[in-house]
Write a structure and sequence with these properties.
Helix content: 25-40%
Strand content: 15-25%
Distance between the termini: 111 Å
Largest sheet: 11 strands, mixed
């Protein structure tokens, strides 16, 4: 022993704090332990309580997930989207110091964010206050310098404030209020500031939606599109909360409606009060579009997690907002504002849609699978979805003047199912004469082509277009070409582009009783409910100077509607010069439509065909010679 004394250095508290090991807690756990909600504007001051916003837990924990790079949220009012952003900032400052940028639409907005949200959060949370440097000039309305990291404020109106920093995490708040400038989309400019960090970067954007072409909805469409599913306390079935399930007994007085408001499970009819609704929300789960829920574990089965998470949440999920208050707002507020602010869905002005009452009038007394004696042909439409959803189909019978009957509809997993139900099936001794198969978004295009090549004169690949040049109903593009010359192979497969707006207009008019009679079988035990829901899923809205059919807010599936469009287009392609015949609204149910005089508004189908004569040579190779036994009269493109 030498008697030497070991000298222990004296450390400043700030140095000890910097050397302390960082917490391995997840963001939601850290927030529940350290995030203080200051009194004043908050209804529930004190430590952040995840039971008041259980849906926020997964969103917060995306900051811990290295597989997630982008997060998009469409949130309704009073769902806590601002608190989510604040909690993420707090967690990073205390646990993973890094450069952060918070972007608001305008300069005064981030002054508000700093003074009313960020600064109170920091000063009221000891874990965050300990990260302040103590220098007065490190805290300003332009940002805050912490020990080891910096929080920058920026606004979308100033591209200079967006371009001057390199950050790992960017939070884009209320993106639908951010306007494009001379240098482009400010959200894209801000996102570029994270490129240096590669896969470690995080881009958060959220907003109350405005229009379908708005920034948040467009970004959400590119994500995995998660919605929050909750179980019913009666039947246990998981579901998303929909406004159409809210009941208030038709009361028009807001105060009386508030008292009787309740939620009704669409599966079992059990009514939920506010406490039961909140309990269901607390046991809910986020589910990406196309995924399924394991009913035993209550967890979503996600085969391949996406790098871009998308969350849509209406105020119906808020544990702080009574259902009665929402009903009162529905009765007193503008519908567009209610749709955006409460339902968290983009609003578009509706001009035309298929109604439940009109569909009800189409229901007949025949059974599904039956073909009427007066039918001269059968056509089908096949809508191709991903491997999870499979393939939807519709088979429809046609009379000589365009009257039609639904014969069969369904969903199958594989192409063998389409062969069994469509191309090889017989209905009352009749086979399907012509089939349009949608080639979809391209992911299964080769499968569609291979299937159609098995019977290229009867199964035709197709792709929908909102409109075609000159108002044409179809154009045909060769698929099979000579590899040496590039010339189309005679008799080779062609892709048929279909004017979907034209045929959707026709279909809606038929259902409304304004064109040829259009029939459905009996809806025994609700067998057609899903099919009918798909037919009500679209509406016609104005897009700039034109009108387009599009999904209604909150609707996800319209596959049978698309199948019906394809089946109608198949009839028109071969047999269908019946455009001048129609039945007056409310007449002709169950009978052949009587001829209608010329002079109806807009161009008739015959006009479209007449205008197409100049193009007939280009589609001649696609015409079919002869008809299968049971085929109908001529006049269509394939028999011209």
């Amino acid at each position: 022993m030498t008697g030497l004394e070991v000298q222990v250095p004296e450390w400043f508290p700030s140095e000890l704090a910097a050397l302390a090991p960082r917490s391995r807690a997840r963001c939601s756990e850290w927030s529940a332990a350290h995030r203080m909600i200051p009194a004043g504007d908050a209804a529930h001051p004190g430590l952040w309580d995840p039971s008041l916003a259980p849906y926020a837990v997964e969103v917060l924990d995306t900051i811990n997930d290295p597989a997630v790079e982008e997060v998009t949220g469409m949130f309704g009012a009073q769902t806590g989207k601002s608190t989510i952003g604040e909690n993420i900032v707090g967690f990073l400052v205390a646990n993973e110091p890094c450069p952060i940028m918070w972007v608001m639409p305008r300069r005064p907005d981030y002054h508000y964010v700093h003074g009313r949200r960020i600064e109170p959060m920091v000063t009221n949370s000891p874990a965050l206050a300990a990260q302040l440097t103590g220098r007065a000039d490190d805290v300003s309305q332009e940002g805050i310098t912490f020990r080891g990291c910096h929080l920058y404020y920026a606004n979308a109106e100033s591209t200079g404030s967006l371009k001057s920093r390199t950050v790992r995490v960017v939070i884009l708040d209320e993106v639908d209020e951010m306007k494009d400038g001379p240098q482009g989309d400010p959200t894209s400019i801000a996102k570029q500031r994270t490129n240096t960090y590669g896969a470690r970067r995080k881009v958060y954007r959220w907003s109350t939606p405005t229009w379908k072409h708005g920034k948040v909805f467009q970004a959400w469409e590119k994500s995995d599109r998660r919605r929050y599913w909750v179980p019913c306390h009666g039947c246990g079935r998981f579901q998303t909360l929909e406004w159409e399930c809210v009941r208030w007994d038709g009361e028009k007085d807001p105060d009386k409606a508030r008292e009787v408001a309740r939620y009704v499970c669409p599966h079992c009819g059990v009514e939920w009060n506010d406490a039961q609704r909140q309990d269901s929300v607390r046991t809910g789960v986020w589910v990406p579009e196309g995924a399924e829920i394991d009913e035993d574990t209550g967890r979503a089965v996600v085969p391949t997690p996406a790098r871009h998470r998308g969350y849509q949440l209406s105020t119906l999920y808020s544990c702080l907002t009574p259902l009665g208050d929402l009903v009162a707002r529905f009765l007193t507020e503008d519908l567009a504002d209610f749709t955006r602010q409460i339902l968290a869905l983009p609003w578009e002005e509706q001009h035309e849609a298929v109604g439940s009452g009109e569909l009800g009038k189409c229901l007949g007394e025949y059974a599904e699978g039956e073909v009427p004696d007066e039918a001269i042909a059968l056509t089908a439409g096949v809508d191709v979805q991903g491997l999870k959803l499979g393939l939807f189909y519709v088979v429809r019978a046609w009379g000589p003047k365009g009257e039609s009957w639904l014969v069969k509809r369904g969903r199958v997993r594989h192409w063998a199912g389409i062969e069994e139900a469509v191309t090889e099936a017989e209905y009352c001794g009749r086979r399907v004469d012509l089939v349009f198969v949608d080639s979809g978004d391209g992911r299964r295009q080769d499968e569609v082509y291979d299937f159609c090549r098995q019977d290229p004169t009867r199964t035709l690949p197709s792709k929908g277009r909102d409109e075609l040049r000159g108002g044409l109903p179809f154009t045909a593009t060769p698929i099979d070409k000579n590899p040496n010359t590039g010339a189309p192979v005679r008799g080779g497969l062609k892709l048929w582009l279909i004017n979907t707006t034209l045929f959707k207009d026709q279909l809606a008019a038929c259902i409304a009783g304004e064109r040829e009679p259009w029939h459905l079988p009996r809806n025994d035990d609700g067998a057609l409910d899903e099919y009918l829901g798909h037919l009500r899923a679209e509406q016609k809205v104005r897009r700039g100077q034109s009108m387009r059919w599009d999904l209604k807010p909150g609707k996800q599936r319209n596959d049978y509607w698309d199948c019906e469009v394809l089946a109608r287009a198949a009839w028109f392609l071969r047999w269908g010069q019946f455009g001048s015949r129609s039945a007056p609204r409310g007449e002709g149910r169950g009978r052949a439509a009587r001829p209608r005089q010329a002079g109806r508004t807009g161009s008739s189908d015959a006009d479209y065909v007449a205008r197409a004569d100049a193009q007939r040579s280009s589609v001649a190779d696609g015409r079919r010679s002869g008809r299968r036994e049971g085929g109908g009269g001529g006049g269509g493109w394939l028999n011209a």
